[in-house]
Amino acid sequence: MGSINASLVIPREVFKSSILANASAIIGLHNHPSGNVEPSKEDISHIIYVNSQIKDESALGKLMHDFYCTDPKDMNYKILAERVRYFKEDEKGVATMCKAMEDMRNEAAREATKAKTVSIARRMLKSGKYTYEDIADILEISVDEVKALDESQSA
Which of 37, 24, 39, 29 is nearest to 9 (CA)? Predict the structure, then answer.
């Protein structure tokens, strides 16, 4: 789930299908659609940065080529091509990928809904017009959650 300048990604969901498939290795990449290749503050926690613009015949250049390929037949690395083919062409692979993407989308939607609920609850608490019970009832959360939000807000 994304917005105009950000995309919510839950790491456990990104890597879940690889873990469930007993992958022996995982390569994770992301791009910056803005074209700015400088690491953002969110990128700082990453371990390895790779210039995805490399398009030569080096191992890294061939790997970058494979990441941009939409057809496994055009890929340099057989193992990567086999996995792409599996997730794009095999019925079980497609189902696995669809399920992983659906789970990721649903988790992002749940987290967005929770964030919105927290935001509304905090505004209601700040207004001073509602009791804990009113807020809990209106937002369909527990009174304990409302109390915890109030305590964290005043801390």
Answer: 29
Name the packing angle between helices 143-154 and 91-127 (round to 10°). Answer: 70
Residue 100 corresponds to which tokens in the numbers above? 């992983």
pLDDT, residue 132, reads: 96
Q: Is 25 or 123 the better-scoring residue by pLDDT?
A: 123
Cα separation values, 46 from 7, 19, 31, 43, 95, Å: 17, 19, 13, 6, 30
Q: Which amino acid makes up residue 86?
A: Y
DSSP helix/strand/coil, 56: coil
3-state class of 2 per DSSP? strand
To 10 degrees, the CA torsion angle through 16, 20, 21, 24? 80
Give dist(CA 43, CA 95) in Å, integer.
31
| The two three-digit tokens of residue 31, written as one number | 């791009």
Query: Is residue 64 within 8 Å of 55, Cβ to Cβ?
Result: yes
- What does pTM read for this prediction? 0.51
